[in-house]
Specification:
The complex is a heterotrimer of chains A (216), B (241) and C (238). Helix content of chain A is 82%, strand content 0%. Chain A is an all-alpha fold and 216 residues long. In chain B, helix 3 crosses helix 4 and helix 4 crosses helix 5. In chain B, a hairpin with a 2-residue loop joins strand 4 and strand 5. The chains are: A mainly alpha (216), B alpha/beta (241), C mainly alpha (238).
């Protein structure tokens, strides 16, 4: 009954691996960039605040698929030669997800009380040190559940790289389906894989939420 | 007016009320005090049927609260209740908060309900706030509107669940004054509070509850001067500096 | 240096490409609006189920939300479009597959069902944030349960839910772009099509970006008007 899945298991799971890799790089770049974006959004320097706000509001209004396309068309022009789907997708994702993480982390920054920052300054720390050792760690801890949720969303979004031909999980399922037409099995399999991984992820996020409330 | 006989209540395994007996006569003001978790708030909610109880009986003006045939909605029109966090409806003005139930439940005309509401707002001292939304009122003002809202249904009994606990110190007095006047005008009242000044002034009886039981009761003078139980003494020491 | 690129912005309005884009915009708008109607009605229903006093209703609602939330929308779309008809057996399958514009209909329904799970969560959160004491305060003035819900709880919950719903409304237009993967002729698909015919994908996708931006602004404006009207009218309680 599940013959199409079983027979093509290595091929399909290779796609899953690509999915995971893409998600990993997207997060590895998106979260640090998001930390900076968040700082930009609370900056009092107009030359920082306005460009960053423009960037965030721009990206958040555009579908991810379009961003992926856009970079796929833009990158060859900038670097002068066509780009592979994987690097193109990674860059698109980093730029896209950084805005969402940025907004989450910004909320974290704003929840840190002024008193804590002032305490840092009053012991002689400068801006970079206070930000690095006080503001960012506290904000990240507080927003951990939301960040895990957003990471799960990023992981789900990797499917969209399908449109530039990236051989991730769902594209591979489509390839097999074109050959063997066992759609229910194949897409059902993909659905189940995502369901299990995302559900476990959301349970983890809830665990952290409870820990946070208990005084983390 | 109110007879509470052998009331016991469990939340799952937790025995929150243990064989409570009490009687409140018409026109009396009874103050209930005790540590948190002692079951005071729960007892109040059993009286007007907001919480069920597993054994015992409660009679309010002859009506049995625990009887399944009793119309609890009707019962609640006769018992007013004021809450710790005021619970004003945020999407309505003070006036609308007060007139909602009289219009919808007692089918009063809008004009009549409004007139009565203005009267009540005068009585609690803030007629000028009739068209204000709760967000624009101070805590003390909100609680006074909440009291007016309960009085609008002309109940026979008023119950207060820690009405001043969420208020800043400056505003406690204005709310207590309204409650004292209400008591002196002859309303039957049950008040859960730690405000012993209020108790001293108008309480006909003070009950001390701990861990689900009534530990001690007395009229105010004897209560404060010679508490019998060590638990009562302990509690009074903590709250009376 | 490398590829010399000549910009050609006329692909945005030149015939037939301008028409492609306009058609695409119209499809996007239709998908967003109809999908939203489905999402709202289904979502509020499920959200209410999740806070109802009946355990099996709560479970059903919860299961719906978990399933539709944990599977990426694109996977759901593929499943319904490719695998869906097969579930009904061979004869019905051929009938379904021969419906013209099937992908469009499937996309709208899938979009509605997916977004409904998110609307359900917002509805549930809105209701949960109203404390039990608030319910009791209303009941203690003698209101019946139906009266309490109608005059006190629901108007209050609606105001809490509107900001997150605005975000969802925005998101549904963005998610409609995913329908391009099953060939629906909406905005993003059209920008891709223009590229395949003119090789000026940069211009066409930039144009598509501007279209989504304009759409987003319109939605925010609309919801802003709705929100301010609800505030002034504050008498929904009557």
């Amino acid at each position: 009954m599940f013959d199409a899945v079983v027979n093509n298991f290595p091929f399909l799971m290779g796609g899953f691996w690509v999915t995971v890799k893409l998600a990993f790089f997207a997060l590895a770049g998106g979260i640090p960039l998001g930390i900076l974006v968040g700082l930009g959004r609370i900056s009092r320097k107009k030359w920082v605040y306005y460009p960053v706000t423009f960037y965030v509001n721009l990206i958040r209004n555009i579908p991810l698929i379009l961003v992926i396309f856009w970079f796929y068309f833009v990158m060859p022009i900038i670097i002068g030669s066509p780009l592979d789907p994987f690097p193109s997708a990674v860059i698109s994702f980093i730029i896209f997800e950084a805005t969402y993480f940025g907004e989450i982390i910004r909320a974290g920054y704003q929840s840190v009380s002024k008193g804590q920052i002032e305490a840092g300054y009053s012991t002689g720390l400068n801006y970079i040190q206070t930000t690095r050792y006080i503001l960012i760690p506290i904000a990240l801890r507080r927003m951990l559940p939301s960040m895990i949720t957003q990471a799960i969303v990023t992981y789900q979004d990797t499917c969209l790289a399908f449109v530039i031909g990236l051989p991730e999980l769902i594209r591979r399922a489509t390839i097999v389906d074109n050959l063997e037409v066992r759609s229910v099995q194949l897409y059902g399999f993909v659905a189940v894989v995502f369901f299990i991984t995302c559900y476990i992820g959301s349970l983890m996020s809830r665990r952290f939420e409870v820990k946070e409330q208990e005084g983390g | 007016m109110i007879q509470i006989k052998n009331i016991s209540k469990w939340y799952g395994d937790f025995n929150v009320l243990k064989d409570i007996n009490e009687e409140v006569k018409q026109g009396q003001t009874v103050v209930v005090c005790g540590p948190s978790g002692s079951g005071k708030s729960t007892l109040l909610r059993c009286i007007n049927g907001l919480e069920p109880f597993q054994s015992g009986e409660i009679f309010v003006d002859g009506v049995s609260v625990g009887d399944s045939a009793t119309d609890l909605y009707k019962l609640r029109t006769e018992i007013g209740m004021v809450f710790q966090r005021f619970e004003l409806y945020p999407h309505m003005t003070a006036l609308q908060n007060i007139t909602l139930a009289p219009i919808k439940v007692r089918n009063k005309s809008k004009k009549g309900a409004k007139a009565k509401a203005m009267e009540l707002l005068e009585r609690v001292g803030i007629p000028d706030k009739a068209n204000a939304y709760p967000a624009n009122l101070s805590g003390g003002q909100q609680q006074r509107v909440a009291i007016a809202r309960s009085l609008a249904m002309e109940p026979k009994i008023m119950m207060f669940d820690e009405p001043t606990s969420a208020l800043d110190p400056e505003m406690i007095k204005e709310v207590l004054e309204v409650m004292i006047n209400l008591s002196k005008s002859g309303m039957t009242m049950i008040v859960v509070t730690h405000e012993m000044g209020f108790a001293r002034e108008v309480a006909d009886e003070i009950i001390f509850m701990d861990e689900g039981s009534i530990v001690e009761r007395g009229t105010d003078i004897s209560f404060f001067q010679n508490p019998e139980s060590p638990r009562t003494k302990d509690f009074l020491d903590k709250i009376l500096i | 240096m490398g590829l010399a690129y000549e910009f050609d912005w006329s692909v945005l309005w030149r015939n037939p490409y301008g028409m492609y884009l306009l058609q695409g915009i119209w499809v996007t708008i239709k998908m967003g609006l109809i999908g939203w109607i489905i999402a709202l009605s289904l979502g509020v229903l499920i959200g209410t189920m999740r806070i109802s006093p009946w355990r099996w209703l709560r479970f059903l609602g919860g299961a719906y939300v978990e399933v539709f939330r944990n599977i990426p929308f694109m996977v759901q779309l593929f499943f319904w479009y490719y695998a869906g008809p097969m579930i009904f057996g061979k004869s019905i399958q051929y009938q379904i597959n021969s419906i013209i514009g099937l992908n469009y209909y499937v996309a709208i329904i899938a979009l509605g069902m997916y977004t409904a799970s998110r609307v359900a969560e917002h509805t549930r959160a809105g209701f949960s944030s109203i404390s039990r004491d608030h319910h009791q305060a209303a009941l203690s003035t003698g209101l019946t349960h139906p009266q309490m819900y109608r005059y006190v709880i629901i108007p209050y919950a609606l105001r809490i839910i509107i900001p997150p719903l605005t975000t969802e409304f925005l998101t549904i237009f963005k998610n409609s772009s995913i329908a391009m993967t099953i060939g629906v002729l909406e905005t993003t698909f059209m920008s891709y099509k223009i590229d395949s015919e003119t090789f000026h994908g940069l211009e066409s996708t930039t144009g598509a970006c501007l279209i989504y931006l304009a759409l987003g602004l319109a939605v925010v404006k609309l919801m802003g008007i709705l929100e301010s009207r609800l505030k002034i009218r504050g008498t929904i309680g009557r």
